[in-house]
Design goal:
Blueprint: H1 2-12, H2 16-32, E1 36-39, H3 40-48, E2 55-59, H4 63-74, E3 77-81, E4 86-90, E5 96-101, E6 103-106, E7 115-118, H5 121-126, E8 136-138, E9 147-148, H6 153-159, E10 161-162, H7 169-172, H8 175-187, E11 190-191, H9 193-204, H10 213-225, H11 229-239, H12 255-272, H13 281-289, H14 295-304, H15 309-329, H16 336-343, H17 348-357, H18 361-374, H19 383-388, H20 395-409, H21 416-429
Parallel strand pairs: 2-5, 10-11
Antiparallel strand pairs: 1-2, 1-8, 3-4, 4-5, 6-7, 8-9
The structure holds cytidine-5'-triphosphate.
């Protein structure tokens, strides 16, 4: 019963928004006379005292119908996945709540997606990856805050153990191998001996190689989103391999140091420029991880995993351009406008990765100058100003803007009046 008190205490100290959703779910459960539970990573983190604001709710009846009812009260929108009996509510402020019908799963073939049948909460917990993720917390009135722990997850949580629930776990869903390593390294736990044996068995059967590529991609993105992805990659290499991703993949020897520097550069950047868009640090790690691969192989890998267009562009841009950018930035003579024209077309991710990787002091200094002195410089004159000076719209506009901006970045002009004067001078010359 210790955990009952503990869970109630933790539930009562959640942010008010979450407490409100739980309270509404509890009321709705009473009206509908059904069992409602918090489950999975949310319960794990609640017990660990780790912040986790992704509510994961399981309903012992129709979860989709429950989601629609709850969403009406919360004034949210629902996206449902009928085949799995799940739904996601998105509230107006963007926060999400996952709701699922408690279910049994059956895997028709190794590494395939499961077929889903109705089941009780215990069936639902049994279909999960590890004991620490297979606990539920009652949120209905009668048993509010009581833990359902059929597979000794609480003990594993205390002992720091990652343990799967049955012999077929990694055959059914080989992505759990990546998840096991991710949780082990994130939480500083250890993978249990039998679980490790099952992972090695799955490795001998090449199970990860059989999984649909987009599922592997999603798991890899989660790895790179971890605080210390290097540790996860190193361990994954040790107990499985990394060539399941592609035969060209290797764990670069400098990875640990570069990831560390990169993290430092990003923290400094975000601290110095809080108004700029948040960085995709995970993508920078991935860009470096993939950087030793030849361009033609890299393009094939990115295509195979169907990375989204923006991510693909930034990864390719870094792979193609790093050496050239580094060399150009280290030239003895480079005007402020020259520096601006090299760096401004690039994403922050490509620039900061160049900063972290370059061994040239001049390159590093120039990137810092770019961010501090030049990056924010913009023209104040507009197309309307050019029109009122009698210039006809067309490609000329773009060229003029470029020339004026260059003069501004090089410090020849500073304000609107000087910009206009500069434009007049150019057109009078012609
Ligand atoms: N789950 C599973 N097998 C998977 C993926 C998920 O059994 N391959 C179950 C686990 O019970 C997990 C829950 O679904 O806790 C929610 O999945 P997800 O949100 O991916 O994991 P979290 O445990 O919340 O992990 P994280 O802290 O990384 O968000």
């Amino acid at each position: 019963m210790i955990q009952k008190g503990l869970l109630i205490k933790r539930l009562n100290s959640l942010p008010l928004e979450l407490q409100h959703i739980i309270f509404l779910s509890r009321n709705l459960a009473r009206i509908e006379k059904i069992g409602v539970y918090l489950v999975g990573g949310f319960v794990r983190d609640l017990l660990l005292g780790v912040d986790n604001f992704d509510l994961d709710i399981v309903v012992e009846k129709d979860g989709i119908e429950f989601a629609y009812k709850l969403s009406r009260i919360l004034d949210g929108t629902v996206v449902k996945h009928k085949a799995f009996g799940t739904a996601t509510i998105t509230k107006k402020n963007g926060s999400k709540i996952d709701i699922a019908t408690s279910r049994k799963e059956f895997y028709p073939a190794p590494a395939a997606l499961p077929v889903v049948n109705e089941g009780g909460i215990e069936d639902d917990l049994f279909r999960r990856d590890f004991s620490i993720n297979a606990m539920a917390c009652h949120i209905d009135f009668e048993k509010f805050g009581r833990l359902v722990d059929r597979f000794n997850g609480l003990k594993d949580l205390k002992d720091g153990r990652i343990r799967c629930l049955h012999e077929e776990s990694f055959i059914d869903d080989p992505t759990r191998i990546i998840r096991a390593v991710r949780f082990e390294q994130r939480l500083g736990f250890h993978i249990d001996k039998d679980t490790l044996r099952l992972i090695k068995q799955a490795r001998n059967l090449g199970m990860l190689e059989k999984v649909q590529k987009h599922r592997i991609r999603d798991e890899l993105i989660l790895v790179f989103k971890e605080k210390n992805p290097y540790k996860v990659l190193r361990r994954l290499k040790q107990i499985y391999n990394l060539t399941f991703i592609d035969r060209h993949i290797k764990l670069n020897r400098d990875c640990k140091k570069v990831f560390f520097n990169l993290n430092k550069a990003c923290v400094r950047f975000q601290h110095s420029f809080p108004q700029r868009r948040p960085l995709d640090i995970w993508l920078m790690y991935l860009m470096f991880f993939l950087s030793p691969i030849k361009l033609r192989f890299l393009q094939r890998i990115l295509g195979k995993y169907a990375f989204c267009c923006g991510d693909t562009k930034r990864i390719i841009s870094f792979n193609k351009e790093f050496r050239k950018i580094d060399k150009n930035l280290s030239k003895k003579k480079l005007s402020a406008a020259g520096l601006h024209s090299i760096l401004s077309p690039l994403s922050y991710e490509v620039i900061l990765l160049t900063l972290a990787l370059s061994k040239r002091q001049r390159t590093k200094q120039r990137i810092q100058d770019f961010f501090v002195k030049h990056h924010h410089k913009k023209l104040t004159i507009t197309g309307g100003d050019l029109l009122s000076l009698g210039i006809k719209p067309g490609p000329k506009f773009k060229k003029l803007f470029q020339v004026v901006l260059r003069a501004k970045i090089n410090g020849k002009i500073h304000n609107r009046e000087e910009e206009l004067g500069f434009v007049k001078k150019i057109i009078n010359k012609k």
